[in-house]
Amino acid sequence: MMDLIAWAILGIVAGAIAKAIYPGDQGGGILATMILGIVGAFIGGTLFSLLTTGTLALTSSGFGLSGLLVAIIGAMIAIFIWSLITRRAA
């Protein structure tokens, strides 16, 4: 149960910071921001694992400051990919 709460908090913080840094209006409420941050933690953790170990493994970032930074970068990548998908659909 505590892990779920920690993931939710990490997601909200990382998603909110990524939305504040990334230019433009992303929309979405607190739930979308939380999901964005959690997805960002997995994207960032996987890319970080690929860069540091050379292997592609679905991992998440940790709950420390470095994990938060990786999650923010991953969330910004997720925003970029989402904007590409929605731009083509429109």
The largest pleated sheet is described as: none
Please tally the β strands and state the result.
0
| Quaternary organisation | single chain
Backbone CA Rg = 13 Å
Please give a structural write-up.
The protein has helices at residues 2-21, 30-53, 65-89. The longest helix is centred in the C-terminal third of the chain and has 25 residues, at 65-89. The model has no long low-confidence stretch (mean pLDDT 82). It starts with a helix and ends with a helix. By secondary structure, the protein is mainly α.
List the helices and strands and how they pair.
Elements: H1 2-21, H2 30-53, H3 65-89
Short description:
The chain is 77% helix and 0% strand. It has 90 residues and is mostly helical.
Question: Main traits of this protein?
Answer:
single chain, 90 residues, mainly alpha, 3 helices
